[in-house]
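Margin note from the TA: students keep mixing up input and output lines. Inputs are the sequences; the output is the structure of the whole complex. Example:
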Amino acid sequence: MAIDFSSLPAYLRKFTLSLWAGWKITSNWTEPLLFMVYLIVKPLSSVLILIVMFYVITGKFTGEQLLFIFIGNAFFSIIRSGISSVWVITEDREWFETIKPIFISPGSYLSHILGRTSAEFLFSTFSSFILLLAGFFILKLPLGINLHLLLSTIILTLIIASILALLFCSVALFVGRGGEFLVEGASGFLYLFSGIIFPPSTLPTFLRIIAEANPITHLTNLFRASLKVSAIPQVEFWKFYLLSLIILGVSYFIFNRALKLALKTGMLDQKMGH
Amino acid sequence: MLKKILRELRAIRGRAYVRMVSIRRDLLLLPFQVILPVLAVAAYIYLYRFIGAPPEYGTLVLIGGVMTTYWLNVLWSMASQLYWERMMGNLQIYFLVPSSRMSILLGMAIGGMYMTSIRALSTLIVGLVIFRLPIVLKNPMVAILLFFLSLSALYGMGMLLSSVFLVWGREAWHLSSLFQEPIYLLSGFYFPVKSLGAGLATIASLIPVTLALDGMRQILIPGGEKLGFLPVWISILILAVMALVFPYLAYYGLNYMERLAKKEGRITTRWQ
């Protein structure tokens, strides 16, 4: 069934087409079923590593600690989608060399970035969903759903992922070869300081402060609570939303400034090579 | 004959030089290259602490983290390098150079080993200092032998894979990516491989990094023998065979794939 994209406003058209291109690029224009295997094998392997580590020490496949680790890890792939947006700049500029035509086409470049990031977000959410299903049916993890809390958490996660996408893309405009380190570094930092696979209390005091101040730690706890594996944390939702939206606004401002600067200095289409 | 040997040696030096010099050119990135693996390693060390593991499991993770840098280098800068070169339009130049493709791959491997060793050693030292992990060097000679055989087998495997990647198209990116987490799992980067059971651990031993990790942990971790899957001398023996067989297979694989790539017109194809 063909969709008439021409009837959509330019920014929405660009967003939708970038979302579609994101799907095509990430799935390598392959069979959707084959791609689903790719989408499942990687996250499944990463969670199996954690499960085996847990088993080696405790000798069991159950327990609150495993639940904590499993859900945190499933949630992290969604957060990571925001950071992965760095690849959008790298691919457009260095790889496919399409940044100029995309930039001058109707609709803002931001619509394109958000479209591609949304594709990543959807893939990651799908992977997490599959992991949770596997945890529920295979490992018999006692998971439930607080639908209201889950929806609120997913909307907040989408906002946080957009913030990460805007901020990291702002930096990516000015780095060439460093793009991969940016993604790896940010992922490693957030994996360590967001209470993903261990609670912040495991960290030494001076590092615990960073983890406790990190909003993603609270978001991860909200996700756990929405699956009824822990008590709902004492978070005032309206404040979390308000703060996230303010930061989103600031990130939008930063991205626009970075884009203008990249244009002015000629960095936007500067090919560094790998 | 001597002229030919000198030409091949120049090709090896030329290709290795690019990688060796890149360390100096990217000094700003060097701290990141050292710190980033430590971040991932730190997360797993704290995970072990969270579940009450003995301190030697921290060392086990650190060794895994160090070997990760080599595995990633083999995967992204050896196996898929010819694919990258094709994407950048350099591959045809490689085929015009009056030297063997094996010399170029060997240079790539030597440069990669040097570049990655600086990163890996720094990660090891930073990890040991920050986390104060227990480490011993029970038999330095065996440790050195195991380390060099591991690298030879690992980079030999990278050379072999590069011939396959030569004819792969866009899927090369996805396959490299697919060789990360599943291999971390199968090779026991963050846990003793014997925990997977004898059957899976034996299959995993076809990957040199599995044997390298298993052997090094037995030599470097206090009481590491009880974590081991195979006796160290068997690992050394298998790695020595791999170090010979992989480059040999790479030579024939590369010739075959080169012919295939030329026949199908893939040497100059980009983005497909």
